[in-house]
Amino acid sequence: MVSSALADRATKKLVLFDVDGTLTPARQAVSTEMLEVLRDLRKKAVVGFVGGSDLVKISEQLSVQGSNVVEDFDYAFAENGLTAYKLGKPLASQSFIEFIGEERYKPLVNFILHYIADLDIPIKRGTFVEFRNGMINVSPIGRNATIAERDAFAAYDKVHGVRAAFVKVLQEKFPDYGLTYSIGGQISFDVFPNGWDKTYALRHVEDEGFEEIHFFGDKTYKGGNDYEIFSDPRTIGHSVNSPADTIKIIKELFP
Ligand code: M1P
């Protein structure tokens, strides 16, 4: 049985969306058209997002005129579901630092900061390591980059593979840490315990009795941060190439 608070929908289907590149352009605000489509979809199915970013950033992108994003969606999963809400109420969580421990974290973060200090890339800004609840986010250019600077870094990284090389070094240097390195956005990569990818969010919904769980994402290829949940047998995966593509598929699936 789908929980009674969600039983008013026309179907017992859950539809989950990645955020960047799927509901919005990378790190930018959602469009009015997308909000209308989601509002309409919420009459037919249970709707949630599952983003890699933290809740503050996702709220900036998805909330409109002071609305509360954890109430606008039935399920709100930030940091792959390590920060989780159902109908505005928080769900149980775990933390990255508790998993890894201070003694093992220190050498990792020290190594990362040294590596970035020695990195020769066109520009550097600030906030090279962002410490979150369920992960750390590492950015060679720094999270304070502007939209133009992040676009330029993303293009540079396509050619020079700065992040891929960084991840390889970390995998070799810390082989026994049990960590996954996931390149999900334009300027950074996420570091979290193995298994704490977006399939983590499914732990919060698997006993809810949904007949189908749909997932929409743009980074569904192997190595992308949508790959695991997209290819999980519990979901029906949809690979999109833009928010416009997401809208098109929603309209086809839920006319
Ligand atoms: O949602 C995808 C990614 O979005 C951001 O990546 P970037 O800043 O590199 O574009 C980050 O919040 C990252 O954690 C997240 O996975």
Automatic annotation (TrEMBL):
This is Phosphomannomutase. Alpha-D-mannose 1-phosphate binds at R27, R132, R143, R150, S188, D190. InterPro entries: HAD-like_sf, HAD-SF_hydro_IIB, HAD_sf, PMM, PMM_cap. Homodimer. Gene3D superfamilies: 3.30.1240.20, HAD superfamily/HAD-like. It comes from Lyophyllum shimeji. The gene is PMM1. Mg(2+) 1 binds at D18, D20, D218. Its cofactor is Mg(2+). GO terms for cellular component: cytosol. Belongs to the eukaryotic PMM family. Pathway: Nucleotide-sugar biosynthesis; GDP-alpha-D-mannose biosynthesis; alpha-D-mannose 1-phosphate from D-fructose 6-phosphate: step 2/2. One of its GO terms (biological process) is protein N-linked glycosylation. Its main location: cytoplasm.
